[in-house]
Amino acid sequence: MLRLITVIFTLLIPAFSYAQSGSLDTQYRAFLENEMWSKAKAAGVSRGTFDRALAGKKLNQKIPGLVTPGSSGTPQKIRQAEFSQPSNYFNERNLGSIVATGRGLLNQNATTIKAIERKYGVPGRILIAIWGRESGFGRVTIPHDAFEVLGTKAFMSTRPELFQGELIAGLQMVERGLATPSQMKSSWAGALGQPQFLPSSYLKYAVDIDGNGKADIWNSTADTLGSIGAYLNKFGWQAGRDWGFEVTLPSAISCAQEGPDNRKTFAEWTRLGVKRVNGKPFPSAEMNKLGSILMPAGRFGPAFIVTPNFYVIKEYNESDLYALFVGHAGDRIQYGSAAFNAGWRKTDAMLRSDIASMQRNLERMGMDVGGADGLPGFKTRRSIGDWESAHQRQPTCFPSNDLIRSIK
After folding, report:
1. What pTM, to 2 d.p., does this model score?
2. Domains along the chain?
3. Which residue ranges does the record assign to the Transglycosylase SLT domain (predicted)?
4. I need a surface site. Which of 6, 39, 197, 318 has the fewest CB within 10 A?
């Protein structure tokens, strides 16, 4: 899902006030009327649009990650590949299907893609890979009512103010004639159309490439690919650079050196003994430019030196594994590259809440884990590596159930 990019609205009435009486549905209707309508009106939304979009909408408590209004904290039972089994993210059946279909679509849309590349500097293989990952090239049914999803999450998510902003942005789309309420189908997270843009991202980045006067991310391939390109361009895509390279790291380089704040030039990494797994030298144009170590599964998976473009892909989705999937799939789509040289070793299945508890313990030791959110990003991974080194363990830089029990 796209990174949440939205205007944060200050709550006029604290959410906990709705949790004090009546059924949740009654509280929800009061929340929409007493809080969201005033915000929508201030944002230029008419009463007619507000009613057309939200009339009759009820809470959908099947949406993952909800909390009781007014409470805080991380939902306890969440399991995701991003923090349990990284190998699941690179299931060859799914990856191979995207690659095979993507190759055909890259050729089929070559003229449009070349125009988008010239305008935004983003390679077509990256556009195609994101399109495939987000919506199966527009073939995946997106069944949920966006206003039901956004309204529910505005009332019951752990970040209600963010989703209140997205709800307002969705209403503005309808107000401006950019979509009808019936067109506003979304994922569980409220993301729309083939590129899975949140409403605020649609308003900021969606573009009309096919020239019909509207940025149609639901039906137009050109607008979908162009909007992805515009988004990545806005976040700083560096034209002419790749996203990264799979490498082997000498034992003298600790996995705890991972991260964009530990960047070195490719020439410096080369002098330290870092090599591409295919035996080729790094491109000469990269040698004086900066790259960072990426080890999304610590010592349990492949290692990479990535360019700043990798972190631009992460602006689309905050997961390291997502960005790696996109870059790798794009390479295979355009170049016919093989699977990663180093495999993914099996890692423990872990609850996000347990990882968050371990992160809080590391924070109490003075380590920067990037926030106790239950997601093992690079700051958490290298903090684990530092803890392991300090306790005479071979650094793995990845959580396990043993580490969760040991890091107290």
Report:
1. 0.89
2. 15-76+142-204 (1.10.8.350), 92-141+210-234 (no CATH), 244-335 (no CATH), 352-406 (no CATH)
3. 35-331
4. 318
